[in-house]
Amino acid sequence: MDPIQILTIVTIVMFVVLAITSIVIVINKRRTFAKLTMLLEEKHYDEFFRLIDTPLTRLTFPDYNRTYFKLNAYMVKGDDKQALTTLDDLLARKTSAEQRADLVIKAFNVYISLNKGKKAKKMLDEIEQLDPSKYKSSQDDCRMMYDIAVLKKYNYIDKMEQALDRMTGPARGQIEYLLALQYQNKGNMAKRDEYLKSSVARISENS
Fold this sequence. Notes:
This protein is 80% helix and 0% strand. The longest helix has 39 residues, at 3-41. It is mostly helical. The termini are far apart. Helix 1 (3-41) packs antiparallel against helix 2 and helix 6 runs parallel beside helix 8 (132-149).
C-alpha cells in the first residue's frame, strides 16, 4: 500500500478515536454532574465526596470546578470550617477574569451568611471594581446586603415594601426576610416577626 494511503488511514483512525473519546467524556461528564447534584440534594454527603474524588471524576472535571462544587457541598452540609478553608484555597488560585468575578461574588455571599463582616467587605471592595456594564446588578445587590447585614441599615424598607405586591412565592419570601432584618435593625421587633414568619412560609413553598 502507498505510504500516503497508509498515513491517510492512520490519520482517519486517529480522528475517529478522538471523536469517540470526546463523546464518551461528554456523556460521562453529564452523568457524573447529575449524580453529584442528586447526592447533594439528597444529603448523601459521604457518597458525594467519594464520587467527586474518584480518578474518573478527576479526569473529567478540572480541579477548580471540583473544588468549587465541594465548596457548595460544605455550605449545604453546614460545615462552615471546611467551607471557609475551601474558599480560601479557591481565592488564592490564578483564575480567568470571569472566574474571579464569579468567585468573589460567591465568596461575598458565603461571608455574609457566616457573619464574616471584614472578609465580606474585602470581597465587596473587589466586586465594586468590576465592570459595571456586566456586573452592575450584582454590585447593587452586594452593597445592599452589606448595608443590611453588616452595617445594620434599614434604608431599603420603603423600596422593598413597594415591590412586594409584584412578587410571589420564594422570591417574595427572600425580600420579606431582608425586610425582617431591616426592621430588626430599626428596633421594630413586631414587624420583624411578621415578615420573618411570612418569609419562612413562602421560602418553604417549593421545598
